[in-house]
Specification:
- One of its GO terms (cellular component) is membrane.
- This is Receptor ligand binding region domain-containing protein.
- It comes from Vespula squamosa.
- Pfam families: ANF_receptor (PF01094).
- It is found in: Membrane.
- By secondary structure, the protein is α/β, with parallel strands linked by helices.
- Helix content is about 40%, strand content about 15%.
- It has 16 helices and 15 strands.
- The strands form three sheets. It has an eight-stranded mixed beta sheet with strand order 7-6-8-9-10-11-12-13. A five-stranded parallel beta sheet has the order 2-1-3-4-5, sandwiched between helices. A two-stranded antiparallel ribbon has the order 14-15.
- α5 crosses α6.
- The longest helix is centred in the C-terminal third of the chain and has 34 residues.
- It is globular, with a radius of gyration of 38 Å.
- The two termini are about 70 Å apart.
Length: about 550
């Protein structure tokens, strides 16, 4: 019944677009964002990332309209509730709210989302009839679905390895701050960092935060044994994280701005912060904390800087629509409705150019240091290009293009040089390339690491498995031979006479009775040969039996 109502609404929309009375369209452009503000099909569980994208979309439009001299853009956000049914309902609401008589550019630019490929393809079945474009995350062969490449987190991994190289670390403890909702992104960075470090012959000791929860009543000395003096933490550290060890060097890796958080930390450890140097939208954190979607004070501390890549993807999608409509307006064609196919072609060309430029664009990371009793101090920037990584120290001249991939640089600040320590010896318990998948979804990135085996244990295991395999093969051959022998029976010589066979029932003809004797002797056989007809029948009955 629900499907009939949905298709009925689709037919009504199409009829209104084709047969309805034309109304005058607004002078501003409209964009629809389909995202999961709620995480469940019942639309009761609030999504932290969904609220972040909702507030970011509204803020981005305000910023654009305040500085735009051409056309104002309005964005409407619709909740998909993380389901196909919710996505279909959201798409229909978007089409109705945009005025079904004004679904062509420049009045209606298109749709951003939904988040998943399944939902996007389901919605596309509705919107493709009206030739409405979508900007989506995953590639698709369907018309009017345009992929905007999602920014990779590999630049963070390459930047971390460059800093580790300059610190001369041979091993480190890896800690990932896993949230219930955003664990995929953090675990994906941790997995890539682990694999890249192993490829460079570094020892990675993966620490499990669950062990700390089980040992809350233990003393600090016991907790300190779980960490080395070199720690890499991915994401925002918890409040008590730096109390679990002393006199260690901790490298915190973040996609957002953690300056204020780390400046308030009082610890004896040396903290290095490596974070994305791009500016965060001003006022976004405050808007998220005070969003209308939260009840009471539920929005406090809900802002997560590790989800800013999603905000940047949304910002790029909006910017592509704006750039495409600006190209049309420059040709003075933005007053009348455009042909839908022409608008999709323009949008596709802008997207292709943007994807190519984004792959070649360098990424910049800020490197800061904090010592006991001091605030964060800027050391320089890590520039990650397609085939190289370079550090520009604060005192270094920007015009110096020399690559410092050899790890030697005379301009290294004293604060950084004092914490450089070259390790001696090797550690046990390092992570290996073996990984176990916890669960797979569209992002398929959550893994746990397995402890390393030494050479003797490895060859012992190989020998045991090989021995068991050979033994099973031999037993199988013997079993086949025994079965074959029993089926075939004993082999008889060709010159042995039929008279040595066991007793057989003979059919001597319909006019004869069955013989009463169970065995015949050689003499009786000789007597039977006198009658040629009876001898032939006997031979025939032997063969038939």
């Amino acid at each position: 019944m629900e499907k009939f109502r949905q298709w009925g609404l689709i037919c009504a929309i199409i009829a209104a677009c084709t047969c309805g009375v034309r109304t005058e369209c607004e002078s501003r452009g409209h964009i629809s964002l389909l995202t999961s503000i709620h995480d469940d099909a019942a639309c009761k569980k609030i999504s932290t990332k969904g609220v972040l994208l909702y507030e970011a979309a509204k803020l981005l439009m305000e910023i654009h309209n305040n500085k735009s001299n051409t056309m104002d853009i309005e964005i409407a956000v619709f909740d998909t509730c993380g389901s196909i049914t919710g996505a279909l309902k959201a798409s229909m609401k978007a089409l109705v709210s945009a005025d079904v008589n004004c679904l062509q550019a420049p009045h209606y630019l298109g749709i951003i989302g939904p988040d998943t490929t399944t939902n996007a393809e389901a919605v596309h079945k509705v919107t493709s009839i009206l030739k409405i474009p979508h900007i989506v995350r995953k590639a698709s062969n369907a018309p009017y679905l345009h992929q905007l490449v999602h920014e990779s987190d590999s630049y963070l991994v390459e930047g971390v390895l460059k800093v580790v190289q300059l610190l001369k670390w041979k091993s480190f403890t890896l800690v990932a701050n896993v949230e219930e909702e955003l664990d995929d992104d953090v675990q994906n960075i941790a997995r890539k960092l682990t694999m890249a470090a192993i490829a460079k012959n570094l020892c990675v000791l993966v620490h499990n935060d669950d062990d700390d929860d089980d040992n809350d009543n233990d003393d600090n000395n016991d907790k300190n044994e779980d960490y080395t003096s070199h720690v890499i933490h991915i994401g925002e550290p918890d409040k008590g994280f730096f109390n679990k060890f002393v006199n260690a060097t901790v490298l915190v890796v973040s996609e957002g701005n953690l300056d204020e958080h780390l400046n308030n930390v009082n610890t004896s450890n040396t903290i290095l912060l490596l974070e994305d140097s791009r500016e965060v939208l001003p006022g976004l954190e405050r808007r998220v904390d005070t969003s209308k979607w939260w009840t009471g004070n539920d929005g406090t501390d809900k802002y997560d800087a590790e989800a800013l890549r999603e905000v940047r993807w949304l910002e790029d999608a909006i910017e592509i629509y704006i750039k495409a409509i600006d190209m049309v307006c420059k040709k003075k064609k933005c007053k009348n409705p455009m042909n839908s196919v022409d608008w999709n072609n323009i949008l596709s060309n802008v997207l292709i150019s943007h994807n190519i430029e984004s792959q070649d664009a360098p990424q910049s990371l800020d490197l800061l240091i904090k010592k006991k009793g001091f605030k964060l101090e800027n050391l320089g920037s890590v520039i990650v290009k397609k085939n190289s990584v370079k550090i520009q120290w604060e005192e270094e001249d920007d015009d110096d293009d020399d690559d410092d991939d050899d790890g030697k640089n005379d301009d290294i600040p004293d604060a950084f040089e004092k914490i450089v320590s070259e390790e001696k010896g090797t550690r046990s318990g390092c992570a290996t390339k073996e990984m176990k998948m916890l669960h797979e979804n569209e992002h398929d990135t959550t893994h746990i690491l397995v402890s390393e085996m030494n050479d003797s244990e490895w060859w012992t295991m190989v020998g045991t498995v090989s021995g068991v395999g050979v033994a099973m093969f031999v037993v199988g051959i013997l079993a086949v031979y025994v079965v074959y022998t029993n089926i075939r029976g004993p082999v008889q010589k060709n010159n042995k006479s039929r008279i040595d066979r066991d007793t057989s029932l003979r059919r001597v003809g319909s006019d004869r009775e069955l013989p009463t004797s169970a065995r015949t002797t050689r003499q009786t056989r000789g007597a039977q040969r006198r009658d040629s007809n009876r001898s032939i029948r006997s031979n025939m009955s032997d063969k038939s039996v």
